[in-house]
Structures are given as C-alpha cells and as structure tokens.
Amino acid sequence: MASFEDYLRRALAEKQTAVDAQSKGVRALKFRPGVSKDEIDAAAKRLQTAVRSKGDGSNKEAFKQAVVNTLEKGRFYIPSFKIYRGVAGLYDYGPPGCDIISNVLAFWRQHFVLAENMLEMDCPCVTPEIVLKASGHVDKFTDLMVKDEKTGTCYRADHLLKDYCKGKLERDLTLSPDKAAEFKHVISVLDNLSAEELGAKLKEYDVRSPDTGNHISDPYPFNLMFQTSIGPSGMLPGYMRPETAQGIFVDFRDLYYYNGYKLPFAVAQIGQAFRNEISPRQGLLRAREFTLAEIEHFVDPEDKSHPKFVHVANLELLMFPREEQLAGKSAKSMILGEAVSKGIINNETLGYFIGRVYLFLTRLGIDKDRLRFRQHLPNEMAHYAVDCWDAEIECSDGWIECVGIADRSDYDLRAHSEKSGVPLVAHEKFSEPREVEKLVITPLKRELGRAFKGNQRMVVEALEAMSEKEALVMKEALDNKGEVDFQVCTLGKSVLLKQNMVSISMERKKEHQRLFTPFVIEPSFGIGRIIYCLFEHSFYRRRSYSENEQLNVLCIPPIKRTIYPAIKYQQFDGAAKLMAKSLKKAGISHKLDVTGMSIGKHYARTDTLGVPFAITVEAHKVLKVEHGVAAKRLQSAFIGNGSNKEAFRQAVVNTLERRLFYIPSFKIYGGVAGLYDYGPPGCAVKSNVLAFWRQHFVSAERMSEVWCPCLTPEVVLKASGHVDKFTDLMVKDEKTGMCYRADHLLKDYCKGKLEKDLTLSPNKAAEFKHVITVLDDLSAEEIGAKLKEYDIRSPDTGNHISDPYPFNLMFQTSIGPSGMLPGYLRPETAQGIFVDFEELYNYNGEKLPFAAAQIGQAFRNEISPRQGLLRVREFTLAEIEHFVDPEDKSHPKFVHVANLELLMFPREEQLAGKSAKSMILSEAVSKGIINNETLGYFIGRVYLFLTRLGIDKDRLRFRQHLPNEMAHYAADCWDAEIECSYGWIECVGIADRSAYDLRAHSEKSCVPLFACAKSLEPREVEKLVITPSKEELDLAFKGNQRMVVEALEAMSEKEALEMKEAFDDKGEVDFQVCTLGKSVVIKKNMVSISMERKEHQMGYFTASVIEPSFGIGRIIYCLFEHSFYTRPGRSEDERLNVFCFPPLVAPIKCTVFPLIKSQQFDEVAKLIAESLMAAGISYKLDATGTSIGKRYARTDELGVPFAITVDSATSVTIRERDSKEQIRVSIEEVVSVVKKLTVGQSTWADVLCSYPTHVATHADEL
Q: b/e map of 564-578 (b: 16 or more CB within 10 Å)?
C-alpha cells in the first residue's frame, strides 16, 4: 500500500511540474513582444491539457466544488436573497459575473445580430394567457410531479425514477444482467412514458421520497410557467414568458413589413425567461429565471438554402446523429458540408447556424474537444419540428444542452394565425400569372352588419382567416342545416352564421403571387448554462510560491486589465491612477489596486477573477502596456417645433409606430394596455442608451454592476414596505367593473373644469387648484368624499363608481410547485442590491463609499396605464445604490461638476408659486438647498448624461420633492424632469434614502448589514459563534453539504439559540434549507453553537444610500420628442420627418446607397458594407434603385446620421443628415471616416475641413 501511495505521489508531482512549467511558459509568452495570439492560444491549450492530465477533473465532484467555491468566493454569482436563506433556482451575478455576462452578450450581438444583419426586438416578459394558449405552453409546458405524502415536498417523477435506476446500475453489485438491461431500458424510454406508466414503475420499484423515505403520490402534470394577473380587474390571466420567441412570432407582420416584404430575414432577442422548476438543481444549469438569447430566422419552406453556408461548410465538428445514438455508438467528427449533403442535417440554413454556433462558442473560450452537436431522438422531437440539434458542452455534470438549433416548421405562425384570426403569411410574386383552383370565402357584409352590428368587422376577419379545411366543413354544414356555430376568437365567443351571410366556393383564378406561411429556423442560447460551462473550461489550479499552496485561476478570454504599482510609493501610485484614468476614457474596464501587498499576491488575486492582463508601474511615466486614448466629442441635437402639443405628439407617435421604433405588444390579439415591444430601431436606440449609461456611470465611476432576478419572495418586499404600502387608490365602474385610479379621475375633473368651464367663479377655481395641490395628501375617505361631492362618474360609461380602495401595484405569483412560497415581480431593482450588501461590501475590500449598479426589468401593475411609454406595466430601470458613511457625505469628485449651471426648482420656490431658476450646482450645495455633496455630484452627473444623450438642456430641470411627496425616511430627493408634449415628466429620481432599506432588511432577516470603522481602543464584546462541522455534514449530505453550511452560517442569533436549545432537549432538529427547497435533519454533532467574548477594535454602523434611479423608457420617449422635427419636401405641401439623434444613440450609424441600379456600384456598395460590419458599425444597405432623394428621406426618418452614396468606382460621397452637406471620400478611407464620426473622434466640421465638399447634382436630391 505504501509503495502505491509513493508511486501516486511521484506521478502527481511529475504532473504538477509539467503544469507549473507550462503555466510559466504561457505567462512569459504574454509579456514577450512580437508573440502572436495563435502562439499564446496554443500554449494555453497545452496548459489545459496538462491540467486535465494531472487529474484535477478526474474526481468530478471535487473539481466542481472547487469551481463553485471559487466562483462564489469571487462573487461571480451567489444565491439570491441569501440573508433570507435563499430561494432554490434563483441566483445573483456579482460584479465579475455581471461583467462576463455583459461581454458574452455583447459578443453574441456582434457575432449574430451585426454580422448577419438581423433585426433585434425587445418584448415584455409578462404575456397574456391567450398567446401562450395558442403556442401550446398552457396545455403542454409541464413536467410530471410527485409529492411526499407527509411533508408535501415536491419532486420530478422522471428524476426520481432515473436516479433510482442509475443508482442501481452504479452501486448494486448483485444486479443480474436481465435487471441491469431493464434499468437501462427504463432510462432510454423515460421521455416516452405516460404519467400512468411512470407511476407504475415508481410503485414497482418502491421508489420513495429521497429525503424522508415516505411514500409519494401518483405523478401528475405541473405547469412550469409562473402565473400572474394583468391589470387590476383580475380578468386578464397572464404568465411570465418561458421563452422570448412568442413575442417575435406575434409581431411577424410588422417585422415582415419593416424588412421590405422580403424573405429570408432573422429577428433576434435577448431577455429573461422563467420556468418554475419543480426541483431546481445543478446551480446555474437549472434555474427558475435565466437569460435567453434567441434568433427566429424566417425562410420560404420551399427554399432553405443559405448564401453564406459555404463560409462554414468546411468546419469539422463533433457530431452525434440520431442513427449513432440509436446504435449505441459515440459522437464522431464530421465535416459540416458532408453532414448537410448526406441529409444528416435537414437543410443548409440549419447547417449554417450550427456552424455559426460552433464558432461563437469556441471563440468565447469553450473547449472544442468538449463541445458536440447532438441530434434529437424521435421521442424528444416536438411533433411539428422538422429537425433539431443541441449544442452540448461537457462539464462536471456531464453533457449539458446549452444551445438548441431547431427547424420549427411553420407551427408557431400557423397557431397564432388561427388563434388571433390574423393571417401571418408571406408572399412570392410570380413573373407570369398562374391559373390555380382556389377556395374563395366571400363574407356578405350587409347581412353580417345587420346581424352583428359593431362586431361585424371581427366576424368578417375571422371568416377570411379560415383554413381551407375549416371552410369546407362550414360549407357542408351550411348546405345540410342552413346555419352553423362559428368561433370568433377576437370576440371570445361563438356566433350563429346563416347560409345568406357567407359564400364559399372553389374557383379557378389567375394568381400573381403565392401566399405561404414561412418556416422558422431557431437557435436558442441558454446564456447562464454557457457561462457556467465557460467557468469550468477556464478553471485550473497551479502551485503557489509556497510548496503546499494551490492557486485557483480562471483563464477567461480578455475582459479586464488590472493596474498595480510595483511597490507602495506615492510617485508610482500617481502614475497608476493616471493610467486608470486613461483606461476609463478609452472605455476599458479595469481594477486599480494600490494596497501595497506583494506583487505575487496581487497577481494571484486577479488570476482568480480571470483578469487576462496586468499593468505594473515600475517607474514614473513608464508602463508595461501603452494605450492610445481618444476623447469623445458629442454633437448637440437640433430640437424641432412643438407649438401644438397634441398634433406634435401625434406626428411623433405615428412616425415611431410606423417605423417600428415601438408598437403595442400582442397587437394581433388586440394588445394589452401598458405593454409595448421595441422594434429594431427602438431596440437599437435602447441598447445604445444603456451602453452609454454603463460607460458614463459604471465604468467612469468604477461601480460594481450586479444582476439580480425579477422574481422576489414576499418576505423581501414585506421588509422593504412594498407589500403594505406600494398601492394606488382605485375605483370601479359599478356596472361594468372597469377600473380607474381615483386620484386621476379627481385631477382630470378639476383640470377640465379649470380649462373648459368659462363660468367658473374665482372661489371655485381656487378650490379646484387647491384640490390638485393637496391631492397626494388626501386619504381614501377624503378622495371618496370629493368624488361624491363633484358627482364624478365613469368617464367611459357615465355609470356610478365605487368608493376608493387601495390596490397593490405588484404582479403576484408563486415560487415553486408547492404554492407555499408567495412572490412578486420586483417593482424596482434596488432590493436585490440591498440584500446583497454584505457580499458587495466584502467584495469592495470592506471600504466605504462604494456604488453598486443594476440594469433590469421592473413591473408595476398599473390601474389605468396611459401616455404610451411614460406609464407602462413593464419597463427597464437602471439604478445605482451609492453606499456612504452617514457622517461623511462629501464626494472627492464633486469639484468636477461644481460649476455646472442647471435649471433647478427647489422646494421653497414651488411652495411660493414661483418658477424654476438657473443655479450653479456648488452654490445649491453650499446653501443647503441640496442636502449633501454626494447627492449634488450625482445630480451633476445625471445632467451630463442626459444632455450628452441628446436631451435639450433648456427643457431639463431638477425639481426637489415637496414635503408631502417625501418618503418618511428620505433625507432629500430630487427628480430630473424632462419637458415633452405631456408636460414635465419625471425621468430620473436622485434620492438620499438614508439607512432605511439596510435597517429594514437587517431587522427582518436578523442578519446585520453593517459597515465598520476602526475605533481607537479595543472593546470586549460577547458574540455568537456558529461553527458547522463540515466533515459530519459532508457524510450526511454529500453534494449538498455546501448549501447546508451556508444556511447554518446565515442563521440569526435568535434562530441559532433556538437550535441550541432543541439540541439540548432532543439531540436533533428539522432545519429549512431554502436553496435546497426542503428541510433537513441536523444532529448535535454537525454544528457547534456558543457565545464567546472577543476583543474588537471596530465600530459598526448602517451605511446611508444615495440612489439615482433612471426610467429608461421615459428617457427614450423624451429623446424621441426632443430629436423630432419636420422639414419641407419636394412639393409645397410635403413635410418630411427627421429624427436628429446624435451618432452616440442613433439606431443605425450609416446607410450605403448605390446611386443607380448598376452591377459595378452594387459590388462597391457590398464591399463597403462588409468593411463597415468588420469595423463594428451598424449600417443599412439599400440597393433597391428607388430615387436617391426618397432613400435619404427614408433613413432621415430613422435618424441615421450619415449616408454613403456610391456614384463611382473609386470614391463615394458621405452626406450628413441635418445639414444635408456632402463630402467626397475615397473608397479606401470611407469606413475610417465614418468610424471616427460615429465614435466622436471627429465632428462633421472637422471632416468638412479635411475633405472636398460635394454639391448634389442629382435631380431628385432633397
């Protein structure tokens, strides 16, 4: 035995030596000048091979534990709501994890959306039931569940049966060959078993609850969608979407129109999806809320070729076709082109996306030898799918499906066509008319009008949308009976149709076009799964300087740089800070560390975070890496006319909806109030605004960005006050049940009287003005009394209304299958940051001040949404929580904004009936008008952010909250209000929230959320010490040990003392572990709980919070209005619409036009388009041959700042949108000129001085 141990020790030492040598080689290569990226990649690959041969991954469980521990310790991700014991299946991404997810998604957009010229959408998560009924999710999106008959704990039935069979195969050495074959067969057919067959097998094998040994119930289906209710009436059921795709399918008609009625085209969407998993496990691999990135590529079913397939045809991939699986063989390497030509992959477009997915994953850092493409077996295929492949990545949990690439046929579009009665079809025009026999349905509108009056249109549309089969069945029924019941979905009921109301016949007709339903090829990316596999593929361990110490390293592709002074020296610190400032201006994320610890420890700490490059300052003004930094110059926007507010607003909204900036969600189903989809140009504007927000705040202020789930357990929102106080007063129409906000009815009545009633006495006018002023202070009883006094009724029907009562504005749901954990969709993103304060404080080195930022969806179930994007039920918030010492709210960078002159509206001016006035920011702070420097600093930064976006500074003011608006705990609060056609709109709130939120969560969770300050004299304190015995817990709970340990360590003092008392009485206790979703039995030997006296030199306090909160949708709508103007067209009466977006936020940076339809010009235009794509510049190529003037007008209306016109083989013109001036540039220079203009390195004035101007000679130039 000893000799074997010696042999093993020697073998491991040899492997360790190989790893260390290869590791040093990689590091040396990185810093050696002139070494190519390919050489470094090859060396890194050899290093990973050495690590794997060493055996780090041989014990999968130990390897996985090392990865997870490193990730959680580095705050890559952590269980959500940890201070409340967590919620199974929900995770927060900490600052480094959030950086990685942002970079992965940015690369996904570049690799797919930009490179493939896709349209991008942004649709809401909240989805009405009718949409998901049509898609099949309401009836079929289920797993079979069983319950512990005593405890009620829920399990997936197929998981229990599979785990039992696998356990028997792996551990039962007495198993007969027949029994082993039987268990293997059960595993192979598991997905085909019905509930009855699954239940029979569970009973046959006597499978019981794995936690208690109790009997379990029979299996029954459990729908995996989170259910909620949309609107205050409770009459519109809805769900949180399980995938993003359905939002795209229901918008097909608008997208097809936007794409010029051409196929093929692709639409992409990134967003949250929700699945109420029965028993979440495997960390990020099976979560209840996750990020999906999906592409819906619409094609003609008769032509699934792809023009770019040749670019991926020679890729060699590890493929696992259906035949190999059924034959019990392994995956094998195949050339992609051969797989398509042999029919293994159904079509070229499917093959093309498989190739693109392969390139995306391997360029991210996924090991190509641990990536395979597995074809779905017959029992896995959806009944409508033509072919489906999964990109599976091998990790410690086995082969994990991370991307699904499916040919979904035309199922979804047909399903929504049938359910909505709106035909979702494409067309192909014929060069010559074709004679075909066609079913003709002719609704007789006069008879239908008599029978159905106002509903006639919906009946007509439903008749015209019938399939041929349905129409022939109706014809037969009408011939036999003379009448038939007919379901009209848009009416939600059946109607009686008679023979004289519709004519149905087969006729021979000449057709000029073919109508068809497109097929959909869909790649769907589980971003969380990809990222977890990337973590594992990037993780390895290497020896430290100490012989017994192992260092963890994540070799993730470049994301950050770190800067260290070689020693703690003032001159070096200054140079490091100067370098950090240059990196910030260049938009390069970085971490500055001037703590003075050894340079080796510096390197080790950031290697664990996966930071690829480190800059070490060894001499003043000498750096190991040099960067060129270009300052951005942003051009100001021209603001157009807005004299007639209503007409101006209508012109803006009509243009926005017609050009698909945004449209009502679920339009084919009649829409849902307060829910909107951002179409391709709107989605691009939103992405650009958020990218600039990140640059302006997160990067420039070195904030920690986090990502927390939308699903929030009730206990969290109970602590924050939202459950009890997040309400509006509502009234109902007593006959129809229609709901209204009580204060809106009263305010509208008073405003209407003041504006329209010319007979109003001065006293009555003063009364109405007073009511409007004190509206926010009135109780439900006082508002009710006023409504009765003025006899205010339902504005739609004139019926009487109910008394006002509070309605909670949060969307309610239930987390988990038991229904025992109530939850809500978050009304703000802030609470996720507050409950993570302890983790973020530790991540920041236990120093104040620091700021955490988050961008995400928020949800408010508005009673009566109105004003378009300004008052919606689902919206994007970007929030910052800046934690400070309550006794020191100064800000070191306040001097940078102190001299800004802003339009300010202090509380005193409002109460005195005065107007807003210009003030210098520093004066407002010094006079105490603004409470403190940090609040003032963020007001200045918000001003700079909004004006650089394109908001008119003369229509931007900062209004201080009045006493009746202030939360009781707030120290001061200001709103950045932007004037638009609706008046002054609150778009950003900047508040000093004091310590209220952290105190509230500390009290509710019993976890102290404190910061500490060193005291001069040490003090002796009595402290509760909880020490889990990891060895005993590991024996008892194995892979779940870590989660049990965390739950024990997170106990409050009260809970721990109760557990200690139970141990003394019984020796064991039931203990709820939320991250496991169940209770476990803890015995006395598993944890030590005691009170100990310790010396402390720290003073503890609760940090205050300064919070800027940005309503992104409101900012974008105001930007739309501030950027909109009209100018004369060619005819006297014609007015052309223009959006003068700055290049910073413009949805498309430039267009490329061949002047005339010419092969030579078309080829040059395509060459320029490819160069623009390579440079990362969004563009639109229009070679339709339409007059150049019309093409300019079309793109001006989209806000495209620059247009490249190809009018020769050697040079082109560049036109600037607002001035319409043009310059002439050589083809070789055009992309670099446009790049400089779009990133702000040059202004239009600069290029006018550098290049010759071009005077338009085209007859149709505008």
A: bbeeeeeebbebbee
Q: How far apart are CA 513 and CA 115, in angstroms?
A: 31
Return the beta strands (E) in 1132-1260 as ranges.
1135-1139, 1150-1154, 1179-1181, 1202-1206, 1211-1216, 1222-1226
* CA 277 remoteness from chain centre: 20
CA angle at 982 for the pair 977 and 984, rounded to the nearest 5°:
20
β-strands 316-320, 371-375 pairing: parallel
Mean pLDDT is lowest, of 266-275, 537-546, 1039-1048, 1211-1220, for 537-546
Task: Give the start-end residues of each E strand in 354-453.
Answer: 371-375, 387-395, 398-407, 426-443
- CB 995, CB 886: distance < 8 Å: yes
Report the alpha-carbon distance of residue 563 to residue 1204 in Å, rounded. 42
Q: Is the peptide bond before 518 cis (omega within 30 degrees of 0)?
A: no
User: Two tokens at 680?
Assistant: 């391709």
The whole-angstrom separation of Cα 1037 and Cα 1047 is 13
Query: How much is the pLDDT for 925?
Result: 96
Instruction: Enumerate the H helices of 930-1010 as residue ranges.
Output: 933-949, 996-1005
Q: What is d(CA 280, CA 282) in angstroms, rounded to the nearest whole number?
A: 7
**Average pLDDT in the 1205-1210 region?**
92
Percentage of the chain with pLDDT > 90? 62
Beta-carbon contacts of 895 under 8 Å, excluding residues fewer than 6 positions away, are none
> Pick from 747, 755, 964, 786: which is nearest to 864 by CA?
747
Structure-block tokens of residue 135: 């898609």
Residue 55 has a pLDDT of: 42
Vertex 1144 angle, CA 1178 and 640, to 5°: 110
Residues in the chain: 1262
Strands 1179-1181 and 1150-1154: parallel
> Residue 761 pLDDT more than 50?
yes
The phi and psi torsions of 865 (rounded to 5 degrees) equal -60, 140
pLDDT at 661 over 90: yes
Cα distance between the two ends of the chain: 91
Which of 653, 668, 651 lies closest to 255 in space, CA to CA? Answer: 668
Q: Is the pLDDT of residue 53 over 50?
A: no
Q: What is the C-alpha to C-alpha distance for residues 988 and 1064, in angstroms, rounded to an integer?
A: 55
Given a cut of 70, whether residue 641 has pLDDT beyond it is no
**pTM reported for the whole predicted model:** 0.82
The reported pLDDT for the residue numbered 629 is: 27
Q: Strands 676-678 and 519-526: what pairing?
A: unpaired
Asked if residues 114 and 683 have their Cβ atoms less than 8 Å apart, the reply is no
Q: Are 392 and 371 in contact (CB under 8 A)?
A: yes
Letter for the amino acid at 672?
V
